[in-house]
Write a structure and sequence with these properties.
The chain is of the alpha/beta class. The protein is built from five helices and five strands; from the N terminus they run αβαβαβαβαβ. Strands 1-5-4-2-3 form a five-stranded parallel beta sheet.
Length: about 130
């Protein structure tokens, strides 16, 4: 009986490990993301919100690949696999899916803005604002 119980526990542990998150991307806070944005010129930021959400306020000089309209799925392969990439959305849900997709496709350093643009600590720009992205 003890062997049976131990076997069941072992199987449950293995299944639990296999069914876990399984992705290597890193969830980060708004403060951490902002620090990276300020200090890492190689950082690529991809916003996966819809254009209407993006135009209401976004981080300057980033890429818009909408998740809901399939743009991200069709275009992510244009992103370099070896550059650090931060994925953002409104609340962290779509960006988490996008980060997992990048991770699953061999991207090396992927970050997810865990609580989305709600957690971004600095003012954003709108589509009517001028952006100097050089």
């Amino acid at each position: 009986m003890k062997k049976f119980i131990l076997s069941c526990i072992t199987i449950m542990m293995v299944v639990g490990l296999l069914c876990g998150k399984g992705y290597a991307y890193t969830d980060i806070s708004g403060a951490q993301a902002y620090a990276m944005y300020q200090n890492n010129k190689e950082l690529i930021i991809v916003d996966v919100r819809d254009r209407s959400e993006y135009c209401r306020g976004h981080i300057p000089c980033i890429i818009l690949y909408s998740w809901n309209h399939g743009v991200f799925a069709n275009e992510f392969h244009n992103l370099p696999t070896d550059a650090p990439i931060l994925i953002v959305c409104r609340s962290g849900n779509r960006s988490g899916k996008a980060a997992a997709m990048l991770d699953k496709n061999g991207y090396k350093t992927v970050y997810n803005l865990e609580e989305g643009m709600y957690s971004w600590p600095e003012p954003t720009v709108t589509c009517d604002d001028e952006e100097n992205c050089e």
